[in-house]
Specification:
This protein is mostly beta strands. Helix content is 15%, strand content 43%. The protein is elongated and about 50 Å long.
């Protein structure tokens, strides 16, 4: 019995030192896309490691990704679903690795405080609330133009209502945690 306890303790210490030597589970970063008025339009975080030492963390090198943004529709337009929801009561959609279509994080650009993050997300499984299906898409893949956010809602029987907006003067802030 003592050999089993000693082996378990040794295995625990070995694992601990291995994680310290390898940097743990990679690097964890948080990001925000902030509109020109200071409002956070998109926020999230990711954990990844540049496994092939090319200076870039790609989708394949991510261990964790999460991104969220409030749904945004023009509420002055008439639609049946708007009788059920207010802007504040719209469902929350959180995108994870499954919803991630493309990802690129340039470590050298990040170190120089230059634009370094690019990603695309799209809701794989719509979020159903009160009989309506909601989805959201974020495209931050072009560093020269602002990110594009697309929101959609439909009940499955009538047309889909879309709301698209490009955040022209938004800033992307990435911090290492």
């Amino acid at each position: 019995m003592r050999y089993g306890e000693a082996a378990l303790a040794l295995l625990g210490l070995t694992t601990f030192f291995f994680l310290l030597a390898c940097g743990g589970n990679g690097n964890h970063y948080e990001f925000k896309i902030v509109e020109s008025d200071g409002t956070a339009a998109v926020s999230g975080s990711f954990t990844g490691t540049d496994l092939n030492d090319d200076g870039v963390i790609t989708k394949e090198e991510l261990e964790f990704f999460q991104e969220e943004a409030p749904l945004h529709f023009v509420f002055s337009q008439a639609a049946d679903w708007k009788k059920v929801f207010t802007p504040e009561s719209l469902p929350a959609i959180v995108h994870g690795l499954n919803d991630l279509q493309a990802f690129r994080f340039e470590l050298e650009a990040f170190a120089k405080k230059e634009p370094s993050l690019e990603f695309k997300t799209n809701t794989k499984e719509t979020i159903e609330a009160s009989g309506y299906h909601f989805w959201r898409k974020v495209d931050l893949s072009d560093k020269t133009s602002g990110p594009t956010l697309v929101n959609g809602v439909g009940d499955g029987t009538q047309g889909l209502e879309l709301s698209m907006r490009t955040l022209e003067n938004a800033s992307v802030k990435v911090t290492r945690k």
